[in-house]
Specification:
Length: 522
């Protein structure tokens, strides 16, 4: 499912209307029908209580007028507070306002602050508010009468449904423009908007429902949105069934270069996750002094002891590295290796010499940050998996600067350095070198514990080793990682979820995603 900007959505609407023959009032009618269905499903008690619709003079208000007419037709008591005079309403919105009034629908015009008591009185006697004041095209702070109506709505204590987008919310950035409605449910049309997903917009959006209003497929081809939202159905099709005669050689051989004294867990979690996600063979390469630990704890993996420094971290030995990488399908590098002259040298050697895809995480990313230009020497697909702090080091920015514009930073870095970038966090972002991006919808705060990133590296590397293209491995891996995190949290609660809880659920998660895809086809 595409995740669009307000500008892209306006162009999709325009093309559907002007070039592909669907009248604007038909799109508005479809929006109203879908919104009413969502409201009555989420708030069935609305059939028994007065509903108050706050409408603006534009097309967002027009959607509200359609809803008012349909609710009245369904014998739901409803009234409209119009934050303008009826003479200011034009086009399709006017058409639907007139249709409501012909049904003897009640419209109360509130055109100045002195009339706010009328709106307050109506809220007091209502059980649900529908916010149809402002749409997704808002680009300036809300002031005056509209700001006051939004503040009254938020203070009412009533459940609130936002039409298309909470009034006052920047639909692209998710930031309130002065003041914004805090909705319990937002019913958006066509496609979700970028500002609806993740922080800071999600608390204003509440539950999000997307209504298909019939945007022309040809319009999508012309606009070509670059960002998609990962869904369970789409990810299920990436889980490949295994043929009856398959053997371990069919599912790749992953080399995990990880670990240092005191950080053996990172290496074990990464390799263990790769095995659980279905990789045929996994070899764990780390400091020679940890080899006994690796081989005794993870008996399903092979090990290769590598030269180490006196402090128990890996040292740069090019012949030993060359022997370790020979015959592998994918290399995962970084968890627990530390940052030193030697590990920076290893990073540079891998980028310059590897003939198979690389997944770089954790300390490997901090090594890249020493000299980001080393990425230019890669001859194979490279996947970087930073958390916000690591991303800040890669970009020489602060954490806050990264977080305020996650999507653009991820896309910009991936394009500039011709790599795939997985920017972790709530609603993890995957960015491809060609400018496309995906936003994840799985995961929860219970996953904020040590080792989760090491598990993700193993999952991504394992899927890549099994032959998935980098973009598919990233999308499925990120979604699956959050999905099994959700499974663990549902079973155990948020506090105390461990990284190994996710590893044990990976096979079940893959099976459940595949079953979802098959069920959607039936």
């Amino acid at each position: 499912m595409y995740l669009v900007t307000a500008k892209e959505m306006r162009e999709l609407d325009r093309l559907t209307i002007e070039q592909y023959g669907t009248p604007g009032h038909v799109l508005m009618e479809r929006a109203g029908v879908g919104a009413v269905a969502a409201v009555l499903q989420r708030f069935p008690q609305a059939r028994e209580m007065p509903v108050l619709i706050l409408a603006g003079k534009g097309n967002n208000g027009g959607d509200g007028f359609v809803m008012a007419r349909l609710l009245k037709k369904a014998r739901v008591r409803c009234e409209v507070v119009l934050a303008a005079s009826a003479a200011e309403v034009k086009g399709d919105a006017l058409r639907n306002l007139q249709a409501f009034t012909r049904m003897r629908g009640k419209v109360i015009e509130v055109t100045e602050p002195g009339q706010l008591d009328l709106a307050r009185e109506k809220m007091t006697s209502s059980g649900l508010i529908i916010d149809a004041l402002l749409g997704t095209g808002l680009n300036a702070p809300v002031t005056g009468l509209l700001a006051s109506l939004i503040e009254l709505t938020n203070a009412s204590g009533l459940p609130v449904v936002a039409v298309d987008s909470p009034s006052g919310l920047d639909a692209d950035r998710g930031e309130p423009l002065g003041v914004a409605v805090q909705a319990d449910l937002t019913v958006t049309f066509g496609y979700p908007k970028r500002g609806h997903i993740g922080e800071p917009g999600a608390p204003y959006v509440g539950e999000l429902v997307v209504v298909d209003i019939g945007i022309a497929p040809e319009a999508l081809t012309q606009v070509q949105p670059q960002v998609e939202l990962l869904t369970r159905e789409d990810m299920g099709w990436l889980v490949r069934p295994r043929r009856s005669g398959a053997h371990k050689g069919d599912f790749g051989h992953l080399l995990v270069l990880a670990g240092a004294r005191g950080k053996s867990g990172a290496a074990l979690l990464c390799a263990g996750a790769a095995l659980r996600v279905g990789t045929g063979l996994v070899t764990l390469g780390g400091p020679s002094s940890l080899n006994a630990v690796f081989s005794s704890v993870l008996v399903e993996a092979m090990t290769v002891p590598l030269p180490e420094l006196p402090d128990g971290s890996l040292c740069l030995d090019e012949p030993a590295l060359a022997r370790a990488v020979k015959g592998k399908s994918v290399i995962a590098f970084g968890p627990g290796v530390g940052v030193s002259i030697d590990t920076v040298g290893m990073t540079r050697w891998l980028l310059g010499h590897s003939e198979v895809p690389l997944v770089i995480d954790a300390d490997g990313l901090n090594c890249v940050a020493v000299d980001v230009a080393m990425l230019e020497h890669a001859r194979v697909p490279v996947i970087l998996t930073p958390h916000p702090g690591e991303m800040a080091r890669l970009l020489n920015l602060t954490n806050a600067e990264v977080q305020v514009n996650r999507l653009d930073h991820a896309r910009g870095f991936a394009a500039a350095h011709r790599c795939f970038l997985v920017l972790k966090g709530a609603n993890t972002i995957i960015a491809a070198p060609d400018g496309r991006a995906w936003v994840n919808t799985t995961g929860n705060p219970g996953m904020a514990s040590g080792g989760m990133g090491d598990v993700l590296t193993g999952v991504l590397s394992g899927l890549l080793a099994q032959g998935l293209p980098p973009e598919e491995a990233c999308c499925l891996g990120v979604f699956l990682h959050g999905y099994v995190g959700d499974m663990a949290t549902e079973e155990k609660g948020e506090a105390g979820i461990l990284a190994r809880d996710l590893i044990e659920r990976l096979p079940s998660g893959l099976r459940a995603l595949r079953q979802t895809a098959l069920a959607s086809e039936a």
